[in-house]
Amino acid sequence: MTDAGKPVSIALENCAKTFVDGTRALEPLDLAIHAGETVVFLGPSGCGKTTTLRIIAGLEEPDAGGKVLFDGVDVTHLPIEQRNVGMVFQSYALFPNMTVAGNVGYGLRIRKVPDAQVKARVSEMLAMMQITRLADRRIDQLSGGQRQRVALARAIAVRPRALLLDEPLTALDAKLRDTLRLDIDSLLRSLGITAIYVTHDQAEAMALGDRIVVMEHGRVAQIGKPREIYQRPATRFVADFIGTMNRLTGTAREGIFRCKAGIVPWAEAPATATEILFRPEDIRVAESGEAASLQGKVASAFFLGDRTRLFVDVGEERPLVIESTARRDFQHGEAVGLAIDPRGLLVL
Ligand code: ATP
Prior knowledge:
The protein has helices at 49-57, 100-110, 115-128, 144-157, 174-191, 202-208, 226-231, 236-241, and strands at 10-18, 24-33, 38-42, 67-70, 73-74, 85-89, 162-166, 194-199, 211-216, 219-224, 246-253, 256-259, 262-265, 275-278, 283-285, 294-303, 308-313, 320-324, 335-340. By secondary structure, the chain is of the alpha+beta class. A hairpin with a 5-residue loop joins β1 and β2. The site of adenosine-5'-triphosphate has 13 residues, from α1. Residues 19, 21, 23, 25, 43, 45-51, 200 line the site of adenosine-5'-triphosphate.
């Protein structure tokens, strides 16, 4: 059994997974997770996130030739009980007839930790998750958010070397998700534990991940820090999966990109570019009187309070998405001049 407490580094080498029915869930995957970091697996349903997490947990074995290493030690064939990892699932997986304190102390009791120590550790965990007052409640008397706090407290009570979380917030409503996301963030930082977090929610991934592994059809599409993934997506799939991406089609020559709606000055435009991409925050509506080299017509405008989300028709297949903080309303069909910040331009 691996040591308790100290965060572990985790490596996957050549880990593929084919299920007995022939489903190929994972193509051969190599991945190195540093001790103490939070890595998020992000991708659409069925891309292999959960399968990868289960291989790391010891709930699933990779196909022959695959290896899982904890601090360099081969644990490929060790069952979950011997890996010293904590797990939290979307479905809580708590014991419904036990109290909150009973659930949180469960892992300690089966490890034969003396009663007094179990008690102390349970109170510490309940305090950390801010559920001390629920200690004697039964699980079936709790809300979803409270249950997930119990599940987190239970997972960390045994001082695991890694915490594995599979869509822990998906079943909760939006407000609760925001609060619990904040609490999970501070928890992971204060524990300094190695954490792997599976989600299909890009906002959650960006908020929590030191690094994000974007997955597509059983393969890694890109690994990087949230800002790298957002600002420098490696593929079209990543560009579209994370955030909103605008596109203009045309041709580049001598530092100018020409498209149907006008021109975009871009000194570094590659001569081969036939499509440029940029985020909504890298384009703005020109002020009245300001010269603008791109022209469009407002197709829709949604006032969101702090900003207005504009869809602007520029003669492309899809309208451009623009976030405007101007203190005014926009009319349907209104002609607008547009200015793009060249620092946000990409070619893929
Ligand atoms: P989701 O977000 O929907 O949970 P995911 O990215 O976590 O998706 P996985 O659960 O890893 O995806 O599944 C990857 C692929 O493997 C899917 O096509 C899935 O149907 C398949 N799969 C998962 N478990 C099994 C199994 N036990 N037997 C056969 N196929 C499976």
